[in-house]
Design a protein that fits this description.
319 residues, alpha/beta, 10 helices
Length: 319
């Protein structure tokens, strides 16, 4: 995207992003003022909101999609097994493809599939994930998802060795759980969370099609490959497993794994949607991403021999 000026006078431009039935852009942001905490929205009465959310036309559509995928043997939750073996060489190639390539580019303000080499990007400051629910989201779902995301954030922190946690305020990784109507009006809130975010990025969220189940945007200060902020958008209409799958993929991608690969298996970073939850293969990718021997800004040629040495240590030197 072209650079624009936000209300605070900060310029922002899109760097790159990935899309996979879920969408994962990365953005470039100028320094932002201290995070603003949104006033807590009073939970709407479940007897009014829960049936409305569950019985909406789009919720019924996503239930049908999930049922169809599961009937086809997709959205597995077993993490893989004897039918999905992977070797150190496969992990090396999958990491290069997923961490060091972008799946999409922005052309005319819209995402266009065009795999492009990219630099390694990740966070240096602690990642403070903060859940924010639209008023339509019932309290039962809020409690369930807070517990899920809290546990998952802790798991991501253990895997990466980088501080990752769920916080109640002053987050820098904002996870928005929104109904269709709430998402279409989210622009002002996005501009509060990341001042200077450009109009194309806001439009990308507000107009995302049904084929985009969820998305994450990771932001870095202009001229660097270090993330400083992120926004994930999760559709509140999703049934439980699809919503959980969105949390697993988007929160992991927002740490610095922006691409998908048809060769990665067992993996959530694969457009086939064979796996719904983070797999042992994906855990290795996260360990690699935050190994101190790799640095933000590295390209594939520089990173590959280092990645190979790390994978050999983690898995043994078999090919």
């Amino acid at each position: 995207m072209s650079a624009r000026r936000g209300a605070a006078g900060t310029a922002m431009a899109a760097a790159a992003f990935a899309l996979a039935g879920c969408l994962s852009p990365e953005m470039t942001a100028a320094p932002t003022p201290p995070p603003q905490t949104a006033p807590a929205a009073a939970p709407a009465p479940p007897e009014r909101t829960e049936p409305a959310l569950r019985d909406s036309e789009i919720a019924r559509y996503y239930r049908r999609v999930e049922a169809s995928r599961r009937a086809d043997g997709l959205m597995r939750t077993d993490g893989g097994g004897a039918d999905t073996p992977f070797t150190p060489s496969m992990v090396v190639e999958n990491f290069i493809r997923i961490a060091l390539y972008d799946e999409y580019v922005m052309i005319g303000g819209r995402p266009v599939a065009r795999e492009t080499p990219a630099a390694l990007r990740r966070w240096e400051n602690p990642v403070r994930m903060r859940l924010e629910f639209g008023e339509s989201v019932p309290e039962t779902m809020r409690r369930q998802d807070r517990a899920l995301v809290g546990d998952y954030a802790a798991r991501l922190g253990e895997l990466t060795g980088h501080p990752v946690s769920l916080v109640g305020e002053r987050g820098n990784f904002h996870v928005l759980v929104l109904s269709e109507d709430e998402r279409r009006r989210i622009g002002p809130r996005m501009r509060q969370l990341v001042p200077g975010v450009d109009d194309d990025t806001v439009r990308l969220v507000e107009t995302m099609p049904r084929s985009t189940f969820c998305l994450v945007l990771a932001f870095s200060r202009a001229g660097t490959d270090v993330y400083t902020d992120a926004i994930a958008v999760i559709r509140a209409e999703h049934p439980d497993l699809t919503r959980t799958a969105c949390y697993h993929e988007e929160l992991a991608q927002g740490l610095g794994l922006p691409n998908d690969s048809s060769q990665a298996r067992p993996s959530i970073f694969n457009d086939r949607q064979e796996f719904a939850l983070l797999t042992p293969h994906d855990e290795l990718l996260l360990q690699l991403l935050y190994d101190p021997r790799l640095r933000p800004g590295m390209r594939a040629a520089q990173a590959r021999p280092i990645v190979r040495r790390i994978v050999d240590e983690l898995m043994g030197a078999e090919s």
